[in-house]
Sequence to fold (248 residues):
Amino acid sequence: MHQARWMARAIYSLKICLLESQLKMIAKDKKDLQDVCLFIVTLYVKPWLECTVATKAPNQDLCFLKALNHYKKVDATISNASINKFSHHLWYLCEETVILSIFDDEVDDQTKIKMIANFHRDRSSDFGKRFIPSKEELSQNLIDMTLDDFVSVKSKQFLPRLQIDDSFLQEDVSTWKQNSAFLEAKRRISRLRVVNDTAERAVKLMQDFNGHITAEEEQKQFLLRCVQEHRNLYPDCKKTTLKNKYPC
Fold:
């Protein structure tokens, strides 16, 4: 859902569809184009526009997966292909990160209460760092799954891991919006980056340059700190930014 390059192709497809009367297209190409555009407009646009909102990530992934499954009634080919691809990117439906949903205004209080109740549940299965549904789960259990199904004792580790005060969890859900600890936690959670492009670019950069300047681990770590400091001082290539003197 974070693939901006794919969205560029989607916009291009929509433009072609709008101007199809001015283009010479065979019937099959026109039908395929209309199928893609229908998928984009009815399913893809809203999740794509909201994919950077951290608090919405788990619920949005689950809802989008269910919507893709339901789309089989419209186009089984597109539905199956999309589910197969998207099911490998469910990073926010794992036991820890699903807790982001307690800060989602679109998740009702009853679901949040069930999520908190499952903090003491020890799951027999382990999804690891991401939820990868089996074929059976995609075809049978998916429709009935809710956010609290992903919560376990591991979920409570997420907020302390980020050094966020979770004392509000002891209070009634209906009072959270007036709780200072909850409001501060929501503010910090909302600033999290949940789109993979940033991380993927950093990994690619490290892969390309790893070992080119130095092979010593200590010097490599020192070099990375220098690069990080430099990027903090010069976050962009604007003339006004580059004119800033490097502090001695």
User: Anything to note?
Assistant: DSSP finds eleven helices and no strands in the chain. The mean pLDDT is 83. The two ends are 43 Å apart (CA to CA). Residues 70 and 241 are 50 Å apart (CA to CA).
